[in-house]
Specification:
Order of helices and strands: HHHHHHHH
Helix content: over 70%
Strand content: under 5%
Structural class: mainly alpha
Number of strands: 0
Radius of gyration: 40 Å
Shape: elongated
């Protein structure tokens, strides 16, 4: 198989004129003396002649582009993302995050000793709170950071809508 491929490559180089004089004379000698090389050369030369003389490229019709676009227009295009995302799922996820933040706050306030009024300026001694019980692992920190980012995004969206409403009222 490799020798056949090698013969074919060398013969194509010979037919196309991509070899130097030494290779050209060597291949010409092989064609004259070796029957396998001679038969393969005749086949490849016939293919080369057919490609040179009888090769005409077909041109597409003048309406080709328009025909393709009309075929594509027959199919229904997928709707925008807003129409197929269930808003109740998004609201449920938001409610979960809000409830988790409220739970952390309630847990923090539950640790405060409200009865101890030892004359401090604040009725709560912040040094006695066990923050490590609440914020002791990486998951809690990541959760709080994600909530803060989501809250800022929500605030930005809300303020953007308000700004757009004010601009629409002023433009009317």
């Amino acid at each position: 198989m490799d020798t056949q491929q090698n013969i074919e490559e060398r013969l194509w180089d010979y037919i196309d004129g991509n070899c130097n004089e030494k290779e050209k004379s060597f291949i010409q000698q092989l064609i004259e003396t070796n029957l396998e090389w001679k038969a393969r050369y005749k086949e490849l030369f016939e293919v080369h002649e057919l490609m040179q003389n009888n090769l005409e490229l077909e041109e597409p019709s003048l309406r080709f582009r328009q025909n393709v676009m009309e075929e594509i227009a027959k199919y229904q295009i997928a709707p925008a993302t807003k129409s197929y995302i269930n808003k109740n799922v998004i609201r449920g996820i938001g409610a979960f995050f809000v409830l988790m933040v409220i739970g952390f706050i309630i847990s923090g306030f539950a640790q405060v000793n409200w009865a101890d009024t030892s004359g401090a300026s604040l009725p709560v001694d912040m040094s006695k709170l066990e923050w490590s019980r609440i914020f002791n692992n990486t998951y809690t920190s990541i959760f709080l950071m994600v909530n803060i980012v989501l809250g800022l995004i929500l605030l930005d969206m809300y303020l953007g809508k308000k700004k757009k409403q004010l601009q629409d009222k002023a433009g009317l």
